[in-house]
Design brief:
10 helices; CDP-alcohol phosphatidyltransferase; 244 residues; globular
Amino acid sequence: MPSLSNTSSVSLPKRIYTLAEIALASLLLAVLGSMLPGLVASAANWWLAAGFYVVMGVLVISFWPHGPLGWANRVTLGRGVLVAIVAGALAASAFTNAIWLWLAVAVIALLLDGVDGWIARRTKTHTTFGARFDMELDAVLILILCIGLLQSEHLGAWVLLIGGMRYLFIAASWPFAWLKAPLFESFRRKAVCVWQVVALLLALTPFTSPLAAGLLALSALASLSYSFGFDVWWLYQQHKHNAH
């Protein structure tokens, strides 16, 4: 898992530049929120969306050491605005009154996932921070979809394991430091991530029956459990090999 950059020596002008870009993107949140009254319909929706964005902005300012974000990270920040709106709609179950709009915004946020990486490769501006920023947004969006599924289909708290498993993995890495070792590139890991998103989106559509939604969510959880289990096993084998 990539680590975030150390910013203890970041100059004040660089922080101010980053802060200005974060503040500018917050205007995008305000504009889009006003254009999507079905999702951001109450003060509670606004507070949750703004709170999510503030936390994201503080983390970006804290860990980005290079001043201007660059176009790849700006696209990721734009994705963050959309994810904030998706998160905000969970308050007072606003998303259930505009489920298709909610899903559309979530899908756009997911489609932009490949755009920032493409820009980073084309402009040769790929960074560890950018990869981590992108990954964290994916993880949060999947967790938000799980919360939405829990609220709309009442499948039980087990569905939160789909979005929470990565955070359980991080928590487990505190007492077991060998879990922090870097993993190899894996098509399997990417395929499972894609299926998680597809399964959750399909489960959330109004056309999907509760039984089908449950089976889709269960398939996402099963594939994810296998993927995490394989990675944990591989990391443990590497740890044992290095210990000898």
